[in-house]
Design brief:
By secondary structure, the chain is an all-alpha fold. It has 15 helices and no strands. GO terms for molecular function: RNA binding.
Amino acid sequence: MLTRRHIRVKVMQSMYAFTQSANDNLIAEQKFLQKSMGEMYDLFLLNLDLLVQVKNKAQDYLEKSQKKHLATNEDKNPNLKFIQNKLIHKIEHSENLSELLDDKKLTNWQQDDEYVNIIWEEVKQSETYKDYLTSDLSSFQEDKEFIITIFKEIIAPNDKLYDYLEDKKLTWLDDLPIVNTSILKFLKKEKEANPEVKVPKLFKNREDEEFAIELFRKTLLNQEAYVEDIQEKTPNWDKDRIAGVDSILLKMAICEFMKFPSIPVKVTINEYLEIAKEYSTPKSSVFINGILDKLSKEYKSSEKINKIGRGLM
């Protein structure tokens, strides 16, 4: 689920929290980083399960409508297209997802089902839903496109859901952009021919999990030396004038230059420029690019960078 860029963002957030708290307990902060990444995975699973619970809420609504004393013909013969959505059906019957939800005891939508109802009401009133029901098409692709659309237009930007998640876990606010992007990527990749929905793991492999911890630890343990190198390239800047996030991104990038021989210099620079564009000031990417370009050239000439493999410089 987590890409290397996502991992870098999580490390950046933990570094920022560490700096703001003035805490010097590295082990405690490392555990917090690991816990934070685990809780982000919980949010991913919950948002995936939310799609199933909204479908269940729709099914309850239609069943109750059929039992009305003065039920209309439409109530008696409801359109079941959403209830029978092929992608939702695959997700609902995923043993993999069910086991993960049970193991982690993620029962939020059963305990707080009013938020499921809020989403269902918005879906029900939307033009997207009405168009979907009246469409003559009936295919897995159409079902998938509908689910992707309601997730993007109704679920992801929902303010009440946002407030609920904020109340449950404050760190989830920072995680939402990554989680929502991961959900959409997961939905888009799902194919009708796949025999069963396989929920992605938090980390692609053991190396990525180790990368998160090592990047966090090595950046913190070596940050004083990295700050000195940054100050040499910004002689007219007081260190307090450099945005907090920019300072952290610079230190993390330098750490990758020096301590991660298998990661190409260009990859490191490009990754932190993209993160800066999303999480820092409008001018941050230009500032960071200038510093990293100067430092990388200096490190190469002094042989401080020792990359392994062809084309890694």
